[in-house]
Every structure is written in C-alpha cells, then in structure tokens.
C-alpha cells in the first residue's frame, strides 16, 4: 500500500519538502468526532523546529482541512488536510544533487526512482513530511482521549544522557504533552540540550531513544498473526525517518533475563486484572492485556553534519567528497517524539475500529 | 489482514497446537520455481526441538504439499502445505484452562475470543504454528537463493553469553544454515547450551538475541512510507511469538553515537557502490542500498517455567497460583532463529515481486 | 491479494482439479459461531453434479475442517477446510495439454504461468475449486442466518426459458435453499432441464441468468467509494468461473427507464423506512438502505462442448482443431447458484464485521 | 480500504460537493512518466456539464497538482491533485436536509453517518467527486497510451436510442476521445440529446448504457481468483455513482447462447494469437487473452427529477413529500463515459504494475 497505512482507519501521506504542499488523507474515522484545530496546531508546534538546537527553517504549518469536516466534526468520509510549504527557496529547483549524502536516502532513492525523485530538500524523504503525519495523528489522538486512551512520549535518552523512568503514567503523559522538550526530568533535559548544542558547534549531530506510554487501551485488541499490536506499531514507527529500532516492555533487556524475572504476575485489583510488572509492555500473544502499552524507539543521529565525508556521485558513479554548508538539525529526537505520538494514535484508531466497528471511536461507551 | 501477510506474495497461516493440522498457503510466487522437499525438511529439522535443551514433544513434521506444486515446480497458483499434528494427547480436550499462565497469551486471548479460543497446548498461539511458517518460508528462501539472495541467522546472545560478530557473510551464512545450534563461535554455543540447561534444572528459562544477515538484495527495493524495508521486516518479526524488539544496523547503539560516527561513508568498488560501514543495516530512507540487510531481534525467556507464580483465574476473576508440571523448552531462541530466516524470506519475496513483477523470482536475470 | 478476498473476514482458496485437495481458509469470523457440518454438506450436495444434466464426475466432497473449530464452534482463529480430490485419474499427469480449448483459460493461463500451470482438468481454473468456496461460504451463510440475514438464488433464465419473479422473499429463499434445481416455478425448471439435455445431446451447452435475494441486511453498511456494496459483491461474483456480468435491482433495464419510473419512493411502515419499489436493489450511494439486496449474474454456456472447434496450439503457436471426447456439464448455471449464495455470504460477513466489529456476527443483538 | 483503490498503483479520493476542494492521491506510478496538464484539462472538459442537457453549475475545474510531479514528470511518490470548489453557495451550510430524495444516498448515508454527513449538494456522494477521479485517471490514461494501451467509451444507449457498434477500435477510440457527446453515430447522438431535452422539459431524467473498449493490453494479466480482470474493473465501475450493472463481452446475451455460438475460436495471425469473435471480452479465466477488453455498464436515470415524490423525513421518521426546485442534469450517462475511461485507466495501471513491476509503465518495452 506504500504511502497508505491501515485497514479500517487509513492514513495516506503525500508531499515533498520543497513542493507546493504536504498533507494527509485520513479515511474511516467515525462520523461526529470533534476536530480541534487548536489541538492540531499545538501538536504541530511541538514538532516545529525551535530554539538554537533546531534548523532555522521556520514555518507556521498553517494547515487547512479541505474535506471531511463540517462544523468542526468529522463527517465519516475522507478528511484531507494540507500544509502549504512556505519558506522554500525556489532557486534550488534546477540542479539535481547527485553527490549522495551518506546515510541519507539520496543514493537508495536514486536506485528506485532513477533520477526522477524530487531531490530538493530531501523531497518526499524529508522530515518535513512528518508534519502531515502529526496533523493527521492529532485528529486521531484527540479522538482517543475522548475514549479515555492517552499517549505520551519522552526523550528517554539523548547524547548519552538519560531521562528518568515513567512514574505515574497519566500525570507524566499530561505533563509531556505540554512540554516543548519532552523529558520527565527537566535537569536531564537541560543537559541534553547542552549536549546537542555542543555537538552542533562541532558540526556534528546526536541521536537518542524515545519512550512511549499508552494508557486506557481496551484488552483483547490485536491479532495473534500477523497483525499483532507490536507488529502494527513497529510497522508504523519504523517508517518514521531516522527510527532504526523498536522494543516493547523490557525489550532487549529481556535477552539477559530469566523467565522467572521476566514473567509479569497477574492479580485482581478493583475487579480488574492487573500485572504486577509490565515487562511485556501491555501485549501478550500480540493482543492487548489491559496494561499500558510501552515501547521505545531509537532515533539515529541526524545524518546531515558539517564535516567532510567520503561518498559517491551517482550520476558519474565515481568517488566524491561531501562538504556541506548551511544549517540543519543537530538532533531530531526531541521533535520526533510528537511524530511518534501521532503515529501511534493512527495505529490505535485503526486497530480499535477494526475490532469494535467503525462507529466505536465516537460511541459513548468506555472500555 | 490478520493471519495473512503480504501484498504480491502472500502467506496465510493456520492451525492450533493440538488441532488436526497446522499449515500455510503461499500465494503469488512466480511459476516454475523449484520446490525442494529436502530443503524444507532440513529447515523443519532445524526448528524441531532436539536434545536436552528442548521440549520432549518430538514430531516428524511430515509436511504435505496439497496444492500449487506439480512435478516439483510451482504452478503460480496457491501453494498449500499442511503438517499434521502427531503426538497430541486428546484427553486434554475437555477442560478449558482458565488459570492464566503469566506472560502467555492466555488472558489476552480470552479477552478477545471470549472463551472460545482453543486453549489446548496454546492453540493458535503455540510456537508449534511456526513450523508452518518455516515450511512456507523455506520455499521462499530456496527461491531467493537461486537469485543470489542469502539469509542466515545466529544466536547473537543467550543467557548472557555472546556469540562473535558476523565476519565474511557468505561464509558465515552458509555455515549457519547447516548448524543445529546456530552460533559462529562454537565455544560460545556450548556455553549457551550449558547455561540453558542450568536454567532448566532450576525450572527456569532464558532469552536471547538473534541476528540476521541478508546478502544479495538488489538496491532500490522498499518504500519511503509506510512500507519501508524496516517496517515490513519488523511487522513480520514482531509477530513471531516471544519476539519483543527489533533493531537494524547499529540499532539502539545509534542513540549514543554522533552523526560523524554513525554515517556510513560510500565509495566505488568494482563499479559498484559500497558503504565502508553498515550502521544503517542496508537500508536508507526505507529503501535497500545494496549493502547487506542486518537486523537483530530480542526473544524473551520462554514464559513457561516450573516455579510457582501468582496469577488470576479468568473464569472466576479471582487471584490464583500457577504451579506447572511437565517439561517445556527452557529456551526457544536457538529454534526461533530458523523461524526468523523463513519469515524474512517471505517478506523479501513479497517486496521483490511487488517491485520487479510477479515473474521476477523465476527469471534468469540476476541483480 | 489474488486468492484471498476480504478486509476483516477473509477467505483464501486453493487447490486444483486433479491435485491432492482443494480447500479454503476463513479468517476473522467471530469466535463462538456454530459450524454445522450438516449445513455445509447440504450446500456441497446442491453444488455437486447430479442427474443426466451434469458431468459424471461424482465425488462425495468429504470436507475436513483441520483448524479453527473446537467442539463445533469457531475459535476466532483461521478455519481451514480441505476437500480431498477423489475420482482423479493420475495417468493424465504427464502430458501438458497445449491445444487451447476456446473460451477456456488454457491460453490466457499459459501466457501468465508460462507452461507451469497445472493443466490437468483445468487445474486451479476448474469449477471444482468452487466446492471449497461453497464450503467456506456455508459457514458464513449459516452465521448470517443466526443474525436474521437470508440469501437465496434461483435460475432466473436458462436456455431461453424464464423462471417466475421473486414473490415473498423469505418463503422463496427458504424453498430455494432446499431445491436441487433452484427455480421458483417447477414447470419452468423442468423445461430448463429438458433444454439442457437437448443441448447436451447435440454436444452443445447452454448458459443462463442467476438472481440472488438477500433479506435482513442492516441499513448503513457499505462505502461510498470504492467499497460500495455493489462493488464488493461484483468483485466476488465476477471471479466465479463463467460469470460475465452482474446487475443490481432493475439493472440494465434502468437504461430505458425515466427517473420518475426508476426512483424508489420511500414510506414509513411499522416505524421502519421501506421503499415501495426496489429498482436500486437495496443499495443507494453504495450503502444498504434496508431493502432486500437483489442482483443478477449471467453465466456463460459451459465452454466445453463436443463439436470441432478451431483453435491454436500454444506450444507450437500454430493453428489447430479441437475435437473433444468425454462428457462434461452441458450447463453449470444450476450448480453455480449455490456458489453465488456462498460467495455472497462471504462478502456480507466481511462487510458486517468491518462495520460493526469482529464480534458482531456472534452477538445476540439483531438489527 | 474504503476511499482507496488498488494494490500497487493506488488512488485515494476525497472531497465534497460544497466543501473546500475535491481531489485525489495517486500512489505507486512509475517515476518519469509525463504528466500532461492539457490532457488532464481536456478530460475534465469532457466531464464538465455543458449545453442545455446539463446542470448549469459550471466550474473551470482548475486542478492543481501539489505533490509528486516535478518538471512535468512523475517522481514516483504520491501525486496529489486538488480541484477547488467554486460556484458554491455558502448560504446552504446551515440547514441539514432531512427529507430523503428517493434513490439518492440521503437516507442510507444517514444510517451510516448518523447525521454527520455533509449533505450540502450531495456531499461526498455527489457526482462532483468524479472530477477528481477523472483527473487522476487522466494521468494513468496518458501513461497507458505511451505503452500502446488505448481506452474509449461511447454512449451505447440512451433514452431508448442505440448507438452503432464498435468497428475499427483504434479509429473509434481516437474519435470518441475528442467528442463532447461520445457516440459513434452522430445522428444517434443528436436523437439522444433531443430525448434528454424532452425528458428535461417534463422535469424527468433518462439513463443509458456505456460501452468501453480497451486495446493493447498484454496477455497474461489478471488473477484466476479473486482479482480477475472482470472483478477489478467491476469493483471500480460499480463504485461510480449511478452505475448499477456491468457486463463483459457478449454479457447478458450469453444467457441465451449455446456454447457453440458463445465460444471464441482462436487462430494465428501474423504470429500472434487472435480470437475470431470476442464474446468473452478479452478475458478468459480472469486473465487477459490479448483481445480487446470490452465491457458495458448501465447508468440509471439521474434520481433528481422535478416531480413530486413520496418519501420520508429521517429526522422525524415520518412520511413526506419532495417537490424539488432548481435545475439538475436530466442525464449523466454522456458525462459518466469519461469517468469510466478514467476509472478503467486506474485499474489497468494497477494490474500492470502488479504484474510487471513498478517501473514497467515507464519502461521503453512494448508488449
């Protein structure tokens, strides 16, 4: 399906960094869901570059909803939103860049698109496209909140500095969803930002780890094969630029644990089943068990750096040296976190609509 | 799509641990591909429990191909293979187990299937089902090898013991595909097996990390959104029971690297583009770059252990204690590795057929 | 998706006329649905050739359910049923038939499968495969009946003889579902059978029109684009061998009607909305309106006839003459009707599960 | 998938009659295909209402391509085009129309969308949306022509008047693609237009039959199950508003033919296989046989008429009478023909890309 994701609720994204507009079509959302422009704008603001640690490209992300919403409510038919690209220097149009930036998509895209790809500013591969995903996901995330399902992501690790672990999830999520730099420990956050600046000053970049928590998901959602909760979330997250790995619950730490440590004991609490630990991250056998869904992704360091790098020119198929000028993000992990929230929201809406029917997201019943 | 995976080449799996048969339908494979029964049997043997470190359930996995193959060649229409379940004690039929085994699918499955799930031996959630996936994947893996694409997986880590890193990939893959216990360093392998036995003797279990290498993939395969190579492989791998995470290339280590370390410089070698390092695991922007695809998954410790565990009874919704008897696998990571090979082969066949057309897998051209 | 149909409830079919077995996998059906072997057997009997007007190939269609059903109830995981091919002469194996039977798939299949297709008895293109579809659809049809949704098909026209129109739908459907030769007017049925025999005696074959009625479908099911009720039913029906057209409600007669005749006036009846006429066949804007769904398909005359026909040999690419011996069905329209019922049931189950959630088909609520 | 169609090449449509814009996203087209704005504009002109026989709503259909095309060539990533709605009276916004127009989607849509649907001008159900499909299909149709595949549709029948049959297909198609009122016999066309006007003058509307011919399709494309060529084309065509039936080749006339008449004899001609007749419409066993693909659809009379009609008010669930004022299309069959061309082009591009790979549509090779 390429640029479309989902079975019952689907999202299609489009656009290029220096094209006319980027955007998304969200189809299959229940009719009557409130679409809150402020909420969308807020999430776009959290994604937008800001301060010294981000690219100086600054756009207002003035999204426009051009279908599927009447009087602020979803109609049930496709919602299309577009975000015009501003701040684009059209002088770049003519020259096709053929010196591949290492660890960017330049070379692999050329293998696939044979030189016809839009190479201006990364084209369809640009992180810019994630703004469309954020806007689409914002609509989904808001809808989920009306059903008591909350999503929050923090920068768990950046440039070698760790944030504290999740504590009270509802409180932490609420707090994160307001923060421009999403950490639970602000002291750690300041250190991260200093480390990002330090790397930037050396023309370098840093990576990090994002951790997402989802509360309120009904149990019994997901499939044993192949559409496990982990599979669908991974499918989505691993398509976010720069994300190179994902782990659920205790994740890779499970490798060195014994079953007796790793297993999550169950017990009854207020008539509900709860797990004493959550090493499985809320999913057993691919299906939600009612515990919070917890996952972490790794975001690689921004490949654009300001150091000489060995590479090739794919027009001449010869060795080349790249010596980039200008200014880019020395880190994107702190911006990617809101992309991860939005992306997760899309996946959850799809799973829930498939499980409980297309009206469920706007039904009064809670889990 | 639930129990079906893929767009152009699809695999549907079915069956329960103690049902009549398990099996798979593979659709969309090019006509005229050789189906090598020995090759399939060999892969099933590598998956089968063996020795002291595995469950004593021993079955021959006498698969039967009941459609789609004539004279040992694919017809181009659906290939169905079934593996009858032998060694099944039918006395278990009557009692529905309602005491949830911690970190198994028992409770979450009950939330989804309302008590109608087949609970005998784990039912559709049993690792047994992976035999069908291995058989299906074996057909795909053999086909890929005719096109110069090779896949191999080793136990990178188990019970705290690490295998050596990949060296010469073709040589290592060839070697691994013959080994019952897939390590590159046999000494480490022996230590792992001892550690597994030690855990077993304490009624406990261990987990591990699997690392897969894929060589020979053409460049320019995969999509920028949402069907990146990483997304499709993750989707598949995270549906394998007990797999809780995946990482590509340098994976989570990228979090602490700087761009200048993480970026993979390119250079020309014999007229081809090669990367000096492979921190991106063969994929940029979701698209293959011609380098080997490298990924690792984490396999959690087998949840079945022989220790008392706190849990709940979901028929009565009360606290309960589980005190299991019998014998199960104290580790599955060494068996899961062939599942990972098979699963990867399915994903690659699908991506290649979508990219180059349905005949490509049986065309004479090499990349 | 090729041999798989559906989004939420999916059916995958496999097998060849002279292979080991044919069969189907049904995935996504709600757990706890009764699977009635007698009901399946009954539908298979109605499909099976019988009497002088059918091929003498007679098989018991001893289907076996090998997964997904425990104690006669669906588990919610994939249901696999296989029907072994009996009565197959294995002597045919060696020779590939390369003289194309006109209006069969021989030549087009060879273009697609390059000679690797199973050509014995039509292989995967044989009407035999429809037995698997009937068995799968029988499970769905039975489930729908528990929800008050009924499907029936009659031979509206055959060899120039017309059956009477539908009258009381529930009564007509009930009656048709028991009849070996499904007509509403038995006199017309006898004439049809005589006409079929007459054609057979001349080595020729006849076609016909099937009309299907569906009652009890909830309103508000289907999509405006592209998955309209008509689209999904057409997609399925036009994949049944020999079906070359479909029309809903007044169908092609609408071409010569004026809007004032064609429009279906609405009125209230017992608190429900009903249409005075049903020229739209129960669907407006792609969505059910609560009226019965009515559609007709055309079934072409069986292409196998016992007359000399001009054709080509695709191994030598030369002109050839086909002079077939043996005995085949001089008509299939009276057998195809149960295929149409089964196929419709699959489509409805999928649409309903997508609309109302995966549990709906086994929920106590009626529309 | 709802508002998205296709597997390898996909089209997503969106928009409402009186919303901001309508549009489409086309994904999966090969890179480097020329996008000819004149060609798109020409097809939009053919769809646009004109003369006395159409609605007076006249818009320029000033489409804008906002992604996926650079320098007039496809990039290979999603192409998004939007067509702003002009000529929209915003005064209509407030009142939700609850008196259902008979044979419109008003009532069924309300059942599905619970009153949240956009009811202004038919909303997402309006024929207006077909402009987006035409623009998307125009890109596909142009691409097919570069590969030697041509599509043309004529009004085979309208208001009881018949056009002549197809003769020389290439010549007829070329001619039709320029004609505002697409008939092969202009005399018949004049009579049709007079009959449409006559109906209009009586406040009534008429329907018709469209016949489409496709030449140049490679043989061996399509699937035996379920994605036959007929299935995919039917799926698409039956989602076009007002289309209620489809037939291939001799279609419903096959019902009264004998096999000896209906079978298409084959012969060699200039080294190629040709069929002497084409009763199967270019498809056998669901797969193209190299003959022209021929199909016909029935377009019901426009449901909007200017006569009193009995209906219901679904807000009060009471009987009501509709007495519409204003002016609408007394026929749409002559406009729908270009929609059918466009829709067919989308289906063919998808089938071809799936069969021969994603680059094929822009490869130099001809069939």
Describe the protein's architecture and organization.
The structure is a homotetramer of 367-residue chains. Chain A is of the alpha+beta class and 367 residues long. Chain A has eight helices and 18 strands. Chain A has helices at residues 37-47, 106-113, 130-146, 169-176, 186-201, 229-237, 259-262, 333-356, and strands at 4-5, 10-14, 21-27, 64-67, 69-70, 73-74, 79-84, 150-158, 161-162, 208-215, 243-248, 266-269, 272-275, 283-284, 287-288, 293-299, 309-313, 318-322. Chain A is globular and about 65 Å long. Chain A starts with a strand and ends in an 11-residue tail after the last helix. The model of chain A has no long low-confidence stretch (mean pLDDT 94). Chains in contact: A-B, A-C, A-D, B-C, B-D, C-D. Chains B and C meet through strand 2, strand 3, strand 4, strand 6 and strand 7 of B and strand 2, strand 3, strand 4, strand 6 and strand 7 of C.
Q: How many runs of DSSP E, i.e. beta strands of chain A? A: 18
Cα gyration radius of chain A (Å): 21 Å
The CATH topology label of chain A is Chorismate synthase, AroC fold
Query: Strand order of the main beta sheet of chain A, please?
Result: 1-2-3-7-4
Largest interface: A-B, 109 and 108 residues
The geometry of chain A reads as globular
Number of domains of chain A: 1
* Helix content estimate of chain A: 25-40%
The separation of the N and C termini of chain A measures 31 Å
CATH homology group of chain A: Chorismate synthase AroC
Number of helices of chain A: 8
As a percent range, the share of strand residues of chain A is: 15-25%
Low-confidence stretches of chain A: none
Task: Give, in order, the helices and strands of chain A.
Answer: EEEHEEEEHHEEHHEHEHEEEEEEEH
Overall SS class of chain A? alpha+beta
Mean pLDDT across every amino acid position of chain A: 94
Largest sheet: number of strands, sense, barrel closure of chain A: 5 strands, antiparallel
